[in-house]
Amino acid sequence: MKPFLLIATRSEDAAADSEYASILDLGGLEERDLHRLRLETTPLPDLDLDAYSGIIVGGSPFTSSVPTEFKSDTQLRVEAELGTLLDEVWDRDFPFFGACYGIGTLARHIGGVIDGTYSEPISAPLITLTEAGQADPLLAGVPEQFEAFVGHKEACTHLPDTAVVLASSEQCPVQMFRVRTNLYGTQFHPELTLDALVERMTVYRHAGYFPPEDFEEVRRAVSAADVSHARRVLRNFVERYAS
């Protein structure tokens, strides 16, 4: 099959490699099936989308909603390159899956509003599918309510009418949406195992996602969650678009 393309922006090798490994594992992919570009170190090359089954954009330490003057040159370059890529993805309705930073990138590109109103600390809230979500193929086999790992400083507060909300939670109204037929975003992390989440917590312990002194308390809380259904979303994306 054609490989999927993972576009990553994590400068910390441990977090970047863990994200890649988790997507391989939970997506049921071999290394030959998932090419990775780390945009924080390398500019986005010219891409032939016909060479790929789909695009996955993972999480990031970047906060897209901060004022431009507070963004690094690297973040500004990454945002510009992703915007150009999304122009083509939108025009072609090319399979796209954005998780956490990826959902914000997609939402902003289509005219949505991203800010800190609905931020969530690292946790595993209960996600509820909308009526549209219950009918969507990427959520096939996923129950109406399920737990999923989250941890984000910003989220969608407004989406244009072109977007369809597929899932929400008590603290975050837009946990998943679709635009056009094949472009998806999730605020929750379907690619995370517990081990991967704990590793990410270690890397970003002082990054503001939770009080660093609460590390063990947060770890115990997320360890009790059953996020097996959330993982199905990523596998559904791979199985639907593998070509």
Automatic annotation (TrEMBL):
InterPro entries: ChyE-like, Class_I_gatase-like, GATASE. Pfam families: GATase. Gene3D superfamilies: 3.40.50.880. It comes from the Bacteria. PROSITE patterns: GATASE_TYPE_1 (PS51273). Keywords: Glutamine amidotransferase. Residues 49-195 form the Glutamine amidotransferase domain. This is Glutamine amidotransferase. It comes from Georgenia wutianyii.
